Amino acid sequence: MDSDGTAQRMTHHDRIITEIRDKITRREWPPGFQLPFETQLAEAHGVSRMTMNKVLAQLTREGFLVRRRKLGTFVARPMALAAVMEIADTEAEVAALGLDWRFDLLNRSLRAPTPEEVAAARMADSAGPVLALRGVHHAGGLPFCHEARIINPVMAPAAPEVDFRSVAPGAWLLHEIPWTSAHHRIRAVPATGAMARDLGLSGGTACMEVTRRTEAAGQWVTLVTLTYPGDRHELVAEFGPSAG
Question: Which of 2, 75, 101, 123 is the most exposed place for a label (fewest CB within 10 A)?
Answer without folding.
Answer: 2
